Amino acid sequence: MSTVVHGRYVGLNGIKGLAIIAIVLYHTQQQLLPGGFYGVDVFFTVSGFLIGISLLRSLFDTGSLHLERYITKRAARLYPALFFMIPIMVSVGWLWDHDILVSIRNQVITVLLGCYNWYAIAGGQSYFDQMNPQIFRHLWFIGVLMQFYVIVPLIVWLMWRIQRAVSIAVPLALAAISGTLMWALYKPGADPTRVYFGTDTHSVGLMLGVALAWMVVRYEQRHPRLPRIIRTVPYPDGTSVPVALPKVPQPLRIRIWRAIAPVLAFVSLILLFAFTIAGKQNDFAFRGGIVIASMLAVVLIAGTICEDSWMQDLMVFRPLAGLGKYSYGIYLWHWPLWIVSLAVAPHLMPSRGPWPLIMTAVLTAIAVTASWILVERPAGVRSALFVILPIRNTTVGHIVRAVIVDLLLVASLFGCVQGVTHAPTKTAMQQELEAQAQRLEAEQQRTGDLLRGGVPEPPQPPTPKFTMPTGDQITAVGDSVMLASSQGLSDVFPGIQVDASVSRSLIAGASIIRDDAASGALRQWVFVGLGTNTAANTGQLDTIYNQIGSDRIMVLINAHGDRSWIAPTNQVLADYANSHKNNVILVDWDAAAAANPQVLGSDGIHPKAGSDLYAQTIKQTISDWIAANH
């Protein structure tokens, strides 16, 4: 049923390589691969399969799980690389960017205890809201995996004890329960982190992998591999050559399976590609999409490892298999290095370009290579202790390697302690936004601009004056990007009325504009900057447009950031402005921010304090619009 080479299934590294590509692109270029998160479910399925195979073979061959060996191997696989990566990245944060150290102590503790996913759920952290990125947030995956490693011996032992056709029902039932919980606990329109991070809700792939492992092991038990070399042919010179007899004909059902399995695997691969390209974090994903992706991963694995499967030729492609072989290290390192690169690259290379991505790729390659040579391979071949203290069968190379590791650990642990000790409670951007909000509120109270139900301003002339507006002619409603830019707006447009807040959506902004219009406080020019947090559609813009009225000018400010909804939202804004040229203006903040990354904070979204680029971009756009005979 399957092909094994030197204890490893042919093609699995290639499958893991494809999955890690999807995950990395999702984390770094989400607008290009918005469904890349499905790669996690492929990984879960492969992991469930491999662990299930290992434990079930041990049970069938020896009657024991050999838990002491199992625990040692799992710990040696996971922890050395973590102990190498965590202090180094915390030290980097201490030396360069304190923003990534917010809540770092709790992150480190829960990662090492294997429960970071539940800490993130309890703390309200959002995997899908990356305004305040955390360098270890991606390790929720490791938490789920560690918890699975704890419970899976019991699951396979129960299956082995039953040893009937119904045994496979155990992981299948658990998979069904997990998928049902994800469906039931998911709330449309709300943040899906609870169901995405939860071990109870995101174990479909793991359990389906165990079910596939049961099928493979049971097949191996019923059809043991017989040695094909059964005799030798002597030659006149006295030498002999082993000769293999033809394979024993297989039953029809086996031959049919081997014929169709690669085809099914290839179709599954195409469908998974479609999921990663067209998928979104929407109702479909959490109410069936993840389950379907896990089932496709099972078919992909089964059809690839099948004996004589032509899919193996695709999956043994060396670059792809190499990525799969080192996928654990790539997963550990790529996200924190991406966060650091976003903060560092604009200062090193202020010109526009894919510099953060290039920097991340280079640094990840270096870090993964160092981790594999210095830590992971020695721990896997020898022991975790051998990594730092080679005391048996040592060579000069072993000693040199251990000295390098020890020096790196001592230095990074010192930096890690400093980073944890001096970690801020809030990021610099969060502090700036809070300060801007307080200043804005004080200004509003002083001037009375936004007092609901107060004395309304005199009605403005019905015919707009197409000259550069002054601040007392402008109402601005926006999200945290406008809030971060509120001082610049006040400097460029003195007297402007600004109402901006963190995490504000287009729907919430529409209600503010409606209230302003009803109270008579809405001014002649209305700036709308609400594209950062949610997707926009024409109906929502029509609502705001009708509330503003055709006698006012609506200035739409698009969004900048690496979020799957931003590019479509910006296109909707552009199309709307193009269809309402007489009184709707589009400000391309996305282009301005991309051309001047040095003015952005470490999150790559919000302008830094003191920057007036946002306001100047609006002013220049209005000036160009007026110059075009409006």
Automatic annotation (TrEMBL):
Gene Ontology BP term (one): lipopolysaccharide biosynthetic process
Keyword list, A-Z: Acyltransferase, Membrane, Transferase, Transmembrane, Transmembrane helix
Listed transmembrane segments: 6-26, 38-56, 76-96, 108-128, 140-158, 165-186, 201-219, 256-278, 284-305, 326-349, 355-375, 396-415
GO molecular function, one term: acyltransferase activity, transferring groups other than amino-acyl groups
Keyword Transmembrane helix annotated: yes
UniProt xrefs under InterPro entries: Acyl_transf_3_dom, Acyltransferase_3
Domain Acyltransferase as annotated: residue spans: 10-374
Entries under Pfam families matching the protein: Acyl_transf_3
Assigned GO CC terms: membrane
CDD domains, per database record: SGNH_hydrolase_yrhL_like
Protein name: Acyltransferase
Species of provenance: Bifidobacterium imperatoris
